[in-house]
Amino acid sequence: TELTRSGRIHDRLDLPLDYAVLGQQKSGTSTLWMHLKSHPDIAWVGKSKETLWFNGDYARTTLCDNDLEYYQRTIMYVRTVHNRAHVLVGDWSATHLSCLCCPLVFKMMNPKIKLLVVLREPVERALSRFMEQKVLDFGACHKEVLNETFASYVTKELQQLQRCRKMAARYRIASQLEHELERTTGTELPPSSPPSSQMLLQQSPKYGWGATMDLGHWMAAQCVAKSNIIGWSVYDVFLENYLAHFPHEQVQVLYTDDLAAHPLGVIRRVEAFLRVPPGNYTDEKLAVIYNSRGCYSWQCARNKTDVQWIGSGAFSSSSNNSGDRSSSSDSTSSGGTLQPLKSNRGTVSDEALPEPDQPQSQSQHIPQDGPNTQAVARLRNFYRPHMQRLFSWADQGLIAPPPASWRSRYESLEGGATD
Ligand SMILES: Nc1ncnc2c1ncn2[C@@H]1O[C@H](COP(=O)(O)OS(=O)(=O)O)[C@@H](OP(=O)(O)O)[C@H]1O
User: Fold this and answer.
1) Protein residues whose CB sits closer than 6 Å to any atom of ligand 1
2) Which residue of 21, 284, 368, 407 is 20 to 30 Å from 242, comparing CA positions?
3) 103, 245 Cβ separation under 8 angstroms
4) Which ranges does the record mark as transmembrane (predicted)?
């Protein structure tokens, strides 16, 4: 029996999940996990980093009704191994941010759950996933990108997204009502004036799956949820879904740029958010990056100075893509040997990945040519209105302020809305 931080006395091991790191995929969650798993009060469900329990990487249906008894037993097992009821147990599946039904899953599991999201510059994230899927022959999107250049893939995928969203727009509630009125009254209504983009920008997040989301918004959200490489960088849609279900105080947004520049600062923010005391991290450990390009495994370690950063900024300025990232600390794993949480969907796991600590060939290269520069410019235009919604939520105090460089890149109104 012990006194928990919330002041309740209990000796229960059958408590629900305390926190979830939702993703986004390719945003540095492996590095954050490797750092934080040394903290004595922080634990995670499953043997390795991700359970992929409610959503796999791509093109599979979500599994929001996946078996809970096994999941809860695994959490209980983690608490038993740690031998302390108050250890915080979290799920680190970077696929859950894009899982449309997952906010409800987590809310039903634990309405007080704490949610963490790591966001990376959207074009960089898309490039990173594209490059990874090119070389991982078991990757969920490998076949999709195998014979594509980045530029040809962007062209194809943006067309597909546009087509998908056009279809979805027919199903927005407003148009449904108008259609119904026209049908029943036999009169043609003047076209209603759509809300201005300024009005849309100032709106708080409101569309939540299973609650306030109408069919049209659901279909539009599926368009990006089904597009793992390009669509999963449309952060506002996924974040809105979570913010519609949870008070913003329960959602902590972090940024890869900050993790790169000030890893200890980001870790302290996570500790404060989870309400655990500060852990000990060494500068040496904090200078290690995991799961970077050519070193694809959640536990594959490289020193920061050896990482070839993918920077979309490289396409518009000089070809120096080492970035302006600086360093800073972590310690050893305290994970022990947890029982594996078996995934029933055959998604990527460390078992399927190359041996950790064995960087693979670094031969992938992104030519800084015209087509790639154009593809990056088109992607920025595509993401711009979505990024502006993030800025607006940051201005409303709902999420942490994004990096200044994102504002200068995406704040201007050039390019306009895409849907
Ligand atoms: N600290 C820090 N700063 C900047 N960037 C970082 C950092 N840590 C990881 N990374 C980059 O994030 C990419 C891996 O992300 P994830 O670990 O979330 O990938 S995964 O979703 O688990 O597959 C991977 O990107 P690419 O190198 O472009 O593949 C990592 O290099």
Assistant:
1) 25-31, 94, 128, 132, 256, 259-260, 263, 289, 291-293, 298, 307, 310, 325
2) 407
3) yes
4) none
What are the φ/ψ torsions at residue 260 (nearest 5 degrees)? -70, -45
pLDDT tens per residue across span 361-418: 444 456 677 888 999 999 999 999 999 999 999 999 999 999 999 999 998 755 444 4
For residue 359, give Cα distances in angstroms to 157, 240, 248. Answer: 30, 37, 39
Whole-number Å distance between alpha carbons of 293 and 362 = 7
Residue 78 CA to residue 18 CA, distance in Å, equals: 12
Q: What is the pTM of this model?
A: 0.84
* Band (46; pLDDT cuts 50, 70, 90): confident
Q: How far apart are CA 181 and CA 177, in angstroms?
A: 6
Question: DSSP labels for 269-314?
Answer: HHHHHHT-------HHHHTEEES-TT--STT-EEEGGG-----GGG
The residues, any chain, with a CB within 8 Å of residue 301's CB and separated by 6 or more, are 34, 288, 289, 290, 295, 356, 357
In the reported structure, the alpha carbon of residue 293 is separated from the centroid of ligand 1 by a whole-number distance in angstroms of 8
Residue appearing with tokens 């852990």:
279
pLDDT of 366 reads 63
Question: How much is the average pLDDT of 195-217?
Answer: 83
- Whole-angstrom distance, CA of residue 400 vs CA of residue 391: 9
Q: Indicate whether this complex's ipTM tops 0.90.
A: yes
State how far the alpha carbon of 55 is from the alpha carbons of 132, 255, 268, 302, 358, in Å: 20, 23, 29, 29, 28
User: Shortest CA distance to 415 belongs to which of 371, 369, 383?
Assistant: 383
Nearest CA to ligand 1 atom 29: 293
User: What phi and psi, each to the nearest 5 degrees, are found at residue 179?
Assistant: -60, -45
- d(CA 100, ligand 1 centre) in Å: 23
Give the DSSP H/E element, type plus range, for residue 124.
helix 122-135
Which top CATH class is 2-410? alpha beta
Q: Which is the closest atom of ligand 1 to the Cα of 129?
A: 29
Q: Compute the distance from residue 80 Cα to the ligand 1 centre, in Å.
A: 31
Distance between CA atoms of residues 219 and 225, nearest Å? 10
Specify the ligand 1 atom closest to the Cα of 263: 1
164: CA distance to ligand 1 center in Å? 29
Which residues, listed in sequence order, are joined to residue 405 by a DSSP beta bridge?
Answer: none
